[in-house]
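# step 3/5: fold
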Amino acid sequence: MTATIPAPRSSSSRPRKVNWEKWGWLYMRISGVLLLVLVFGHLFVNLVAGDGVHAIDFAFVAGKWADPFWVVWDTLMLWLALIHGANGMRTLTNDYARGRLRKVLLGAILVSTIVLILLGSLVIFTFDPCIGAAQGGDLAQFCTAKG
């Protein structure tokens, strides 16, 4: 007696969908590792190197953001942290909320993440330490020497 085993279903017969949960899971792992490097580097430069926490003021931030390296560093940290946190909140919302409440919460997470990314990026890329530097002092001297 011979048993016939049916042919396995071919994956080519049906269209493949993007597995968003898999990509979200993968993003959380990769962004988590990158965030560890970015955050601890940020903390080291701001709190340990140089004069430590006592050196952090407007001029310190202006000096950091005058260097494109730190602009990219802080922008990458901002984007990764906000998207990482939003993805975590999305996962919690999917686990515990149902129906209309779930859709409202997911929409609120999406809107707040987009607004914060846009505002944070706007601050980083449009930061100008010389606005309002006409009052005198070290900043006014820096801005007149610069321009």
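# step 4/5: annotate
Helices lie at 20-48, 58-65, 68-96, 99-126, 138-146.
# step 5/5: archive (pending)
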